[in-house]
Amino acid sequence: MLVAWGIDTNGKPCFLGLAPGAAESTDAWRALLEDLKDRGLGAPLLVISDGGKGLCTAIERSFLHSLHQRCLVHVCRNLTARVPVHAQDQVKRDYWAVFDNIDQDGQAAVAEGRRRAKRFIAKWQPLYPSAVACVADNLDALVAHLLFPAEHRKRIRHSNLIERTFGETRRRVKVIGRLPGEQSCLSLVWAVLDRASKGWRGLTMTPKALRRLQDLRRGLLTQPPDHNDDEEVVAQTVTAAA
Questions:
Q1: Do residues 18 and 115 share a domain?
Q2: How many domains would you assign to the chain?
Q3: Residue 242 pLDDT level (bands cut at 50, 70, 90)
Q4: How does residue 230 score in pLDDT terms, banded at 50, 70 and 90?
Q5: CA distance linking residue 130 with residue 140, whole number of Å
């Protein structure tokens, strides 16, 4: 199952859609994303995903004017999986220290994240080059969330929100054993995820945060500087796919 959820400019999470797929290929993900667009989804400010090549390519093709954030949790798992057990805790602490407690805003925050990442790479690359490549090769997509309001960053730097609901989906499917067809599978997964989404915690949208989002939108779409600050940002602010 390919699934997408979003957060609108009121800070409210919303379950956007799902589709069956034999594999997480570019074509399968592109079909889902294009269907969301056909149903009225505007280009999100930010798309959050794991590192699946099919999904990343589909995002690049479907949302040209959107920022892309790689899930930091997935990258952390890939990183530590390539590090000996005795060093994993320290590498993990240093990894999260790259992104935590950054006080700057906007491009200054991104610059600080990059400085910290370079220190991390310089420290660990001589020992574990294949592991550190997980960070070095994806740095642009790892720091994209730092452009956003500081109070939003810890919620938009990973796709864990939707990942947690998959456990409930598996639990419901397991007791059935075998589903009679695609439609029954889609209906069950939709029902489980739709119910779970009602308990999702949203984001706090302060006037300052909304102004920041509006600035990002103008920058991405190269709108003229006299654009009305009070005009609503597109309804889809943040979208995650997994």
A1: no
A2: 2
A3: low
A4: very low
A5: 18
Q: Which two tokens stand for residue 193?
A: 């995820």
Burial class (CB in 10 A: 0-12, 13-18, 19+), 144: buried
Task: Assess if residue 199 is contained within a domain.
Answer: yes
Is a pLDDT exceeding 80 seen at residue 178? no
Is 51:242 a contact under the CB 8 Å cutoff?
A: no
Over the range 40-62, which residues count as b (16 or more CB within 10 Å of their CB) and which as e?
A: ebbbbbbbbbbebebbbebbeeb
Q: Do 167 and 64 fall into the same domain?
A: yes
Does residue 146 lie within any of the structural domains?
A: no
Write out the residue range of the structural domain in which residue 39 sits: 2-70+159-241
CA 116 to chain centre: 21
Q: Copy the structure tokens of residue 114.
A: 């990059």
Q: How many CA atoms lie within 13 A of 135 on its CB side?
A: 30
Chain position carrying tokens 């938009």: 156
- Is residue 148 very low, low, confident or very high in pLDDT (cuts 50, 70, 90)? very high
Global confidence as pTM: 0.82
Closest CA to 10 of 241, 240, 235: 235
Counting Cα atoms < 13 Å in the Cβ hemisphere of 67 gives 24
